[in-house]
């Protein structure tokens, strides 16, 4: 696989953007291997993901961002992100007591399914240390007191760790604590949560029990970026499974676990592949 | 097809109920052709649907209810409903302006898919009279004023019609009016609505627009019995369809229509087959 | 809605095609309202759908095809199709005895969901004449003898009708006859069939019975373009529904009907919107 | 949780069976906690699963089977299986080189989701030894030569191991070898395979490549009991996922992995819970 650059951008929709950008790449001997764009005609916004091979590209890798900014970004009022496929993202995992999402993530990591580094697993409980040890990944525990009196202190220690380990994004793999605004600001649209309901139904605690009480015939799981409003951030992926009157709260929890881990891992995959663009409170997911 | 009796019941769970009831039927030479039961172990409630052939049954058809009541219902504190497969239910359809659910229902009716009579279609608009005429079904219009000042009067006229036509249950096929408590009391768990969202998400008006605003990745439709609380009655059936960031409110409406008609018709099918038991705010759906 | 041109094309993948074509449109004052492309990297083929508004476009409508051919098609070895959104496609429907797909199609047509004309319904049986009459569409019957001795003659009469009515494409709405190669040659990738199984499982007759015999847990329906090989043409759309051991061949037929009509109508929608490109034996479906 | 007995049976359908069997249990002071039955009216066969608490049951545990045989089995021509919930099934896992199903199984096992023992993992390759070691489960490798000349010998060694470890059933977690008739005879309907297609489509090798070549819009996975005919045994569970023309054989493999592991684990769950009855080449799956 050759080294590539990946450009994700959005800007007010105007004629000729694709034409100019693809011309820019091909004129400079970049071979485009991925191009997808989308125009939100309600909002009048243009979104694009373009990936091209760098081996014959005339502009040096460390100058590409500058050239795009100078030539196009300000002219078209673009917000751009530039990535390189040979830079592995560094991912931290936050967990509490349930292992199913963690195992699913680590099994993919170990099998080489994701091109990612996992420098640390963070928890408020000791419970899953054995899983981290099975996979030889450092496991850090900071207990949060029931009255949350040490929460600020804990989060500072966590952020210190994340900075030291150059963590790029965080996966909340059934982490049962609310993330503070400070951490969200440091990782905007870079903290991925899995909520065990079909959002916006059943926000908050014990969604399976809520679903059972309401008597729904289908349950779901939702992966989203964390924002300061609870369970209200941009949705990345959702899926559902059919249930019946025979299901109990316990069997919903069991069935839900399989949904949660698959939905979370699909979201993480899209994030690692840099196929998600966020605009206001929604995601554009490139395929 | 032989004549059958269908017994639907629920009662506090106790040992021996199935044994006694099946013995009652077989001792009296009824051939059981359907038996399904379910015990809600959380609430301690027993639910059963039993259907048996009447051609050799020793108890006369018009005495069966009495015998069951005398022998079992009071002893076991049962709530029973007894139906006969040779009595066609009579169904009224309420519509407003959209034709997709109405066409889906009438196509099934005309093709003989449902063993049901449809004596009338009721609307607050003239728009769908042509559909009723295509299928030779009387179409009644009572306009409800914007300030709802004549709503009581309209509902009284409607109920008068329903009584005159011996209507057993009502299907709201995208009828955009709220049903008053009077009518609900006259048809408890016998008014089937289709709500164009995955309830309890997006209760109330314009659910597709709400879904688009929230940025969900899946939309749904929900069929439920109407109760006095808006969109909160016992859910009969739900289904969903995957959407993407490319969908607009308009395309959600288009995709949703196919969901709505199928979900509503599945619910009506179960109701006609007497396979739904309602307990508190939930349904038990026999298969 | 403004008048637009829709260009569907495929060609060997080369750098710069999008750039050139979008430049061609924007340089000539066409406003691009839809652009999607796809590169099959295994086969090295480029596919594109582009739609642009014609109200300010400098090239006259009847010259566009010529210009594209001259400037690009031969140079890039393109196969192109050009459509205009103000030209309604004319669709013939072929049926046998089952009404569910026909009703679903006609209900959409009558509700204005599809921008299409339906000049005729063709059948080998009288059974569904009443449906055609409900919707005021001419209904033609040519009986095919059991020994097929008059099949050639019948198809010639049918093709004569289709030509006279300027039919652009044919929908086989559960038409239970095999289409001859002559008709397929006249309508290549323009005859849409619904097969009542999840192809390639259960090719041929009585697929629901085959599915029941095999004991599958999910059944499906498949819409595809008709080619000379039975049930083997390019697949446009598929969907499935879960079943259980309790289902009988009859209940599979009932559940399958809902799948069939929705899957067929989705395929017809895509065809009418000119969002399908066919390459070898596969479809590219633009969203 | 109290100790229970689980009775699975089928027999020719006759009146009174449920009545007699439930009376037998309740008369002997067993509290029925699960009862589900199903009558295949096409074949005239009655199927039942009944579970009852043993703490007050009058018949000693080791006599129950005898009593049922004497009192009912021969009279009704029943085939019965009796299990006890406090006897853990012992499960062997066979693998080749892919880890996703193995990790999924072991994560559930480790989390206590399944009440099962796993005394051994068997493979024809060394590749997954590290996974077995992560979970401290003995890993046995017998290499099968390319010409299969030592296959009989290998299977004898494997069966010797299975007997020594009192293995009750085998899970083929993407084991890429064909199981010989000898082993199948020793474990009839007790070897669970996952086939990476929606059977009966794409039997045999490289189903994802076959699916890609055919251009299907949905792919599936199928879990079934192994019989002597390849990929033709009784189906336990299937599921599907939607794909598009953009998918490559590689991306189908990736998407399929998530299906495979979930479908296989659902089947294993049902098997462990003794909720599967096999009749001819089909399964009855109790819920």
Short description:
Four copies of one chain form a homotetramer. By secondary structure, the first copy, chain A, is an alpha/beta fold. Chain A has helices at residues 17-27, 64-76, 100-110, 129-134, 151-164, 181-186, 207-214, 249-272; strands spanning 4-12, 31-40, 45-53, 79-84, 90-95, 117-123, 139-141, 169-172, 191-195, 218-225, 235-242, 276-279, 282-285.
- Indicate how many domains the architecture of chain A comprises: 2
> What is the H level of CATH, i.e. the homologous superfamily of the largest domain in chain A?
Formyl transferase, N-terminal domain
Approximate strand percentage of chain A:
25-35%
Q: Name the assembly state.
A: homotetramer
User: Number of helical runs of chain A?
Assistant: 8
End-to-end Cα distance of chain A: 19 Å
Tell me the series of helices and strands of chain A, N- to C-terminal: EHEEHEEHEHEHEHEHEEHEE
Mean pLDDT of chain A, nearest integer? 95
Helix share bin of chain A: 25-40%
Secondary structure layout:
4 copies of one chain form a homotetramer.
Chain A lengths: L3 E9 L4 H11 L3 E10 L4 E9 L10 H13 L2 E6 L5 E6 L4 H11 L6 E7 L5 H6 L4 E3 L9 H14 L4 E4 L8 H6 L4 E5 L11 H8 L3 E8 L9 E8 L6 H24 L3 E4 L2 E4 L2
Parallel strand pairs in A: 5-6, 5-8, 6-7, 8-9
Antiparallel strand pairs in A: 1-3, 1-4, 2-3, 9-10, 10-11, 12-13
Helix pairs in contact in A: 3-8, 7-8
Question: Main attributes?
Answer:
homotetramer; 287 residues; alpha/beta; Alpha-Beta Plaits; Rossmann fold; 7-stranded mixed β-sheet; 4-stranded antiparallel β-sheet; 13 strands; hydrolase (chains A, B, C, D); Formyltetrahydrofolate deformylase (chains A, B, C, D)
